[in-house]
Design a protein that fits this description.
Three copies of one chain form a homotrimer.
Chain A: H1 10-29, H2 38-59, H3 72-85, H4 87-92, H5 94-118, H6 123-144, H7 159-174, H8 179-200
Subcellular location (chains A, B, C): Cell membrane
Family (chains A, B, C): Belongs to the UPF0126 family.
Membrane topology (chains A, B, C): Multi-pass membrane protein
Chain lengths: ~220, ~220, ~220
């Protein structure tokens, strides 16, 4: 399948990276008990902002985008240090950041899916690449900070939003819907699910073996 | 060296992936103190079932097998959710699963070694690729669950079994033994060592500096 | 940019790998409370000695150097087991090892930068590849041992030394300074910064939001 790439302008891609890096720095800033230094903050920013795209390109065996341009690393580093310095300001803007982040997840997912399709990856793994593009930064962040990986635990639907959006994009691409429409649909659906799940506290059920399901229990 | 690939039929490869994913889910199921949700279980299943093959293909710089087919990801996810739901059943089948797992390690090792040799990797790193193919899933599982990596600690011979089997395969391939015979020998040797080590509690000695060896101590 | 590779003779590269592996084994040896076995020590040695080069080649999407030669893995494994056995001897040689390590960081950085430039990676990500080549082994070590990543926390300037050296090399290469001179300058500058920071206890400041900077505080 020779799906055309859902091309995003560089400034949009870099904005998404910057938003990720700011969030990474704010996350690191909440860990007062660890003595994280300036380099640690920059590293977390780079990991959160660029990690998803890096895992995406490792999975499809291509040169990582951040290695092909001079822009990505300075933007991620700068945004992380800004996020650290202006932590109070950004904390007050939290609702705005959650909104921007929801769009960012969708954007990373859409770029991931179409890049995978464009390089000949079949539909199912292409959707998987979309999910990893969207959530990979937060997985790497938790692994580097030596924390349990947030998205494996009961919480609001981060990866699910990315997964539903990515699946929609794969289906639309298979139906030969123009890639720009398909990509924008993916971004909107992902962002809406994410925001609704934050608003209404939706979550996936905790793991459960059949024998322990309440309806199977006998008095 | 143009070693032919030890070709395994897709159903066998997928069975091995499924057994790995079921074990991953059962492992996650024992962690009652963490609130792992359905997605977390699916993720652990994907990591344990597909992680070894993923690391193998990253090491030899090829497109991961799971990214080249629609089958791997649904099988790993489905097996993980099945393993979660039928945990009690599978726990009772534990001896069977340990047996299947021993064969699975051997199979992953054999596929890893021959794939590396086929892509021109020299003998020593090819055997290393076999070991990582066999144990990579469990390494990634422990890193994602934020646990000490099981195989670095004193315990039954998991990686050693894979290492001996992989070394045998490399030697046989160098001696131009037909690849099917070499591959099956690797699987059998790996599985036998693994099962004997479980049965008799074999383990590697703990790390020790020479100065602290008992025979060097003076009254 | 077709920068020529800063070619290091194989024996020098392997010496650097061996020094890394010995340090990894000594690090593992200090963790008496965990029951790390011989395989665990070998694995840590491989990770510390070869991890930087592995991450470097993953980032620039090339076959890892350790996968293209029979020498790297045995040297790393042998050095790690030697480091474990002769722990007392090496502990007494600690100043020598810190000195050799400082040169090793510089060497890994110089190889990383020039390899990235030679494969067409632009200047900024090329310097980043140099830093990761130098410090990647210690990052992977901490992730595998389930420890907080040392270089993210306040401490002596490990990554900064690699970063300054890598930046110098990128600048010299852009100015068309012969690559051998540029590479040796990078190694010397990195080693000197690292050693001075150990000697004088230099460190980066801890992360700090602007609102909490002392000069901004009011009575």
């Amino acid at each position: 399948m020779s799906t055309p790439l859902f091309v995003t302008p560089l400034w949009l891609d870099l904005t998404a990276v910057g938003i990720g890096a700011i969030q990474g720095a704010m996350f690191a800033g909440r860990m007062k008990d660890r003595r994280i230094d300036l380099l640690g903050v920059a590293l977390i920013g780079i990991v959160v902002g660029l990690g998803g795209g890096l895992l995406r390109d490792l999975l499809i065996n291509q040169l990582p985008a951040a290695m092909a341009s001079n822009w990505y690393l300075p933007v991620a580093t700068g945004a992380a240090l800004l996020g650290m310095a202006l932590q109070r300001l950004f904390s007050r803007l939290n609702p705005l950041i959650i909104g921007l982040d929801a769009v960012t997840i969708g954007l990373f997912g859409a770029i991931g899916v179409t890049k995978a399709l464009a390089y000949g990856v079949p539909e199912v793994p292409a959707a998987f690449v979309g999910i990893i593009s969207a959530v990979g930064g937060s997985i790497l962040r938790d692994m580097m900070l030596n924390l349990p990986i947030a998205l494996m635990h009961v919480g609001s639907l981060y990866a699910v939003a990315a997964g539903v959006g990515s699946a929609l994009l794969v289906i639309l691409a298979t139906l030969r819907v123009p890639i720009t429409i398909a990509g924008i649909s993916c971004v909107i659906l992902t962002a809406v699910i994410r925001l609704l799940s934050v608003r209404f506290g939706w979550s996936l059920p905790e793991q459960r073996a059949i024998g322990s399901w309440p309806r199977w229990r006998r008095g």
